Amino acid sequence: MYQLHCLRDRLGLATTVLEAADGVGGTWYWNRYPGARCDSESHSYCYGFSPELLDEWDWSERYPQQPEILRYLNHVADRFNLRPDIRFNTRVSAARYDEATNLWHVTTTSGETLTATYLITAVGCLSSANVPNIPGLPDFQGQWYHTGQWPHGGVDFTGKRVGQIGTGSTGIQAAPVIAAQAAHLTVFQRTANYSVPAHNAPLTPEFRAWVHSHQDEIRAVMKSTTNGHPFRIAERNVADVSPAERDALYEAAWAKGGLQFRATFKDLLTNKAANDTAADFLKAKIRSIVRNPATAAILADIDHPYAAKRPPIDDNYFDTFNRPNVSLVDLRRTPIERITATGIRTAEADYPLDIIVFATGFDAMTGPLFALGLTGRNGLALRDAWRAGPETYLGLGIPGFPNLFTITGPGSPSVLANMPVAIEQHVEWITDCIAHLRANHIATIEATPEAATAWSNQVDAAANATLLPQAGHSWYLGANVPGKPRRFMPYAGGMAHYRDICTEVATEGYKGLVMAKS
Fold first, then answer.
1. Which residues are within 8 A (CB) of 435 and not within 5 positions of it... i.e. 6 or more apart?
2. Which residues make Cβ contacts (< 8 Å) with residue 372, sequence separation at least 6?
3. Looking at residue 486, what is its pLDDT?
4. 119 has which bridge partners?
């Protein structure tokens, strides 16, 4: 939506958005599962480009739920009159670059073809649902749902035996809500996960007033921090304080809740010994909350550093396992063998179920782009170009794909940052680049292979300077999708540093990109 606003209203370009859904909202249109809620604080999870927009909207909670975020995005669409240039219920099946005409030919599933000088992908990083290929799913006689494709009318769990597969951030949000309604919830856990309480609450009038009067300060912090959030990471290392002071700081961060827990010390993601102190603290919290020692041991059997995978925050997730109608299955010890007509069979037992919920995430970052059927210069298919893993320049351009821009693509901070901050930076860079091309009568712009390779090496180096690759089963690496190449996809060097790099590239005449005059 912001890209449409920039191209149409700032540059005066004829711009069309093709949208598969029948409304705006992106991930917040599709992800309507129980407990769906943002893990960025509401006053930072919004557009910052318009002071008027900031002034006229008030959030109700610290961490807004899906319906409120969707209302906000609909407000933005109406506020800037974006709907007339969005074609809803339109899914792209292929997009091919024609060198002879220097146009992109975009085909929809209805058979329509549109042409455009510039093609911009805004398909999101987490929009291609990953339903695991478990034998027997077609035989299941109950209902099954993926959290990323949730029915708009909701699902009634009353009196139902529910099985939930997956305990990532989505599963951690969904389980408490499902358990409160279902007759019984069985959680099937493959990978145990850390989680910090969100301590969500309504925003006070005083806090709302403070936000409105400090917008410039809040935005400045967000643009200058590693993750684009409205708080700074502490300057201290774990070794700078005594064990007693360290634990007191962790207790205070736990009491405050939210993603700011990982900002307690600056070396939590770079020093394994430092990270172990946070990991041990969080595992001890799990064991103190969950009353059944055997269940607590399974939930605390975490095999990766804290925040090496996406660090969830929750509303009573671990407390949920104290309910009499909730049970936990350790899939590491007893893996799923198949789905039967009546439920799920593991290596040890059959679990009768009426509903199966797949909280199994997405074919992240590359999956949504592959779904577009992109074909660049000389018939190069993106799937072939990325057979060994994604390689981009800044997460913005791809060699062999002229005049194609990718918003928050692989190789950009994207999922490691507060997404509105990452999106706005990309949109503004793309808009300025297109303005430059038009002002200088440049017909094509394209990342060079050398620049993309050099940048991809920087992406690898940034990841390897952290503990992030040590979570070998993370979707950051594509490890959740069988057969997907293993490569760390987001840029871990920090949003603020990345912004400076992109600014420098533009200031120096878009170095790393080759341009041809019309």
1. 11
2. 92, 94, 95, 121, 123, 382
3. 87
4. 404
Task: Note the pTM of the prediction, 2 decimals.
Answer: 0.96
Alpha-carbon distance 439 to 239, whole Å?
54
Token pair listed for 510? 């878009």
CB 411 within 8 A of CB 395: yes
Q: If you average pLDDT over every residue of the chain, what do you get?
A: 96
What CATH number does the domain located at 2-13+82-128+364-424+448-503 have? 3.50.50.60
**CA distance between the termini of the chain:** 29
DSSP H helix total and E strand total for the chain: 16, 20
Nearest to 24 by CA among 122, 93, 106: 122
List the chain domain ranges: 2-13+82-128+364-424+448-503, 137-207+225-358
- For 509, residues 6+ apart whose C-beta sits below 8 A from its C-beta are none
Q: How many Å apart are CA 469 and CA 446, to the nearest integer?
A: 30
Alpha helices in 313-448 (DSSP H): 317-320, 367-370, 382-385, 419-439
Cα angle value 478/483/484 (rounded, 5°): 30
